[in-house]
Amino acid sequence: MEETIEKKMVFTDASLIITEACVQAGADVFIGYPITPSNRFYQYGSKRFPSFLAGPDEITVMQWMAGFSAAGKFPVTATAFPGLALMAEGLNMAYAMELPMLLILTQRLGPSTGSATTGAQGDLMFLNGSISGHYPIPVFSHSNFKDAWEMTYEAIQTAIKFRTPVILLTSKELVMTNKSFDLNELKPLQPVKRFSAPVREPYEPYKSGQELVPPYIPLGHEKYQVRFNASTHNNAGLIKKNDPESMANTHRLKDKFEKRIEEITFYELDEQADAQNLIVSYGISADAARDAVVTLRKKGEKVDLLIVKTLLPVAPEILQILNQYKEILFVEENISGIYGEIVYGKNKPKNIRFVNKIGNLINPLEIVKSFQS
């Protein structure tokens, strides 16, 4: 006889769920500068994290993030596009130094400062080129409260395992909308194990083995001389331009993700027998896509649904799924269909169509109408 677990219902939002997931996963410090619609992370972070720092601006926030990470702590921040634009240089610096950290990006309507109180899904293309040289940076997305919990954990685990900044991409409606939710759906999290890559003697700060990730040793270590460098550097962390070792070390920043991409590939695929049509979505538009699929199936349509949770880098496994279908409909809250454009470029195949919108949420009936047109 199965044990009946009493529901533990609360009225909450994803900002709180993500914040709690960060703390349970072992994040040490929240460093923030308040900005709508990420301000609840700032509020919750000040109460839940072991340490909290209020930065005077976003540029300083990213520099403090780098300092804490170099000292062996795991830092978290949250911002929106105007803040991300100011953080871009520091993000590149942290990427080159291979510093683990989590940046939560709450999307809002652009361009520029746009509308702080209107959601959107418009920042993915910027993230796709945010690291100079177009190096891949992991970008995860969540579509509901359970996703928010699980993908936050995966984001922190990825940041530590791969020694990298990671972006958790969300949007205003996802993190600021309060809903009734059963907390029993969330499994307790264990702190992510720190700095597990083996040290190879003689120690060099950026020397890696088959795993393509150097061992992470924080500043002030008693045995090893630790060096972090944001410029082009060799295995010793010394600036050596046009040096074969330095070029190989720079190539490694790309290879470590692409050669181990299956470890960071997450998605939800709802399949139906003999379906040749696919709806693709992510983030805030995913629930509308789910409802649309239910409606279409009731009407006798055969259709599958793909909710993408690892948006960048685009995994070969995602491409293999897409290639199986006769017709594909991308659903995302922006003007151009950004994720579809990242996957296919400007010269999109004729079997690819889009449902795009700005200013308010995509309605399931809009998806149904487009699918049947």
Please, could you describe this protein's structure?
Helix content is 35%, strand content 18%. It is an alpha/beta fold. It folds into 2 domains: 9-185, 3-Layer(aba) Sandwich (Rossmann fold), CATH 3.40.50.970; 266-372, 3-Layer(aba) Sandwich (Rossmann fold), CATH 3.40.50. A 7-stranded mixed β-sheet has the order 3-2-4-5-7-6-12, sandwiched between helices. A 5-stranded mixed β-sheet has the order 9-11-10-13-14, with helices on both faces. Strand 10 (277-281), helix 9 (286-298) and strand 11 form a beta-alpha-beta unit. Helix 1 (14-24) packs parallel to helix 6 (145-161), helix 3 runs parallel beside helix 4 (81-97) and helix 9 packs across helix 12. It is globular, with a radius of gyration of 21 Å. It starts with 8 loop residues before the first strand and ends with a helix.
A few lines on this structure:
35% of the residues lie in helices and 18% in strands.
How are the strands of the biggest sheet laid out side by side?
Answer: 3-2-4-5-7-6-12
Count of the domains? 2
Low-confidence stretches: none
Number of helices: 12
Report the CATH C-level class of the largest domain: Alpha Beta
Order of helix and strand elements from N to C terminus: EHEHEHEHEHEHEHEHEEHEEHEHEH
Mean pLDDT: 95
* Oligomer class: single chain
For the secondary structure, the number of strands is: 14
Within the CATH hierarchy, at the fold level, what is the topology of the largest domain? Rossmann fold
Distance between the termini: 49 Å
Shape: globular
Fourth-level CATH superfamily of the largest domain: Thiamin diphosphate (ThDP)-binding fold, Pyr/PP domains
Tell me what portion of residues adopts beta-strand conformation. 15-25%
Percent helix, as a range, is 25-40%
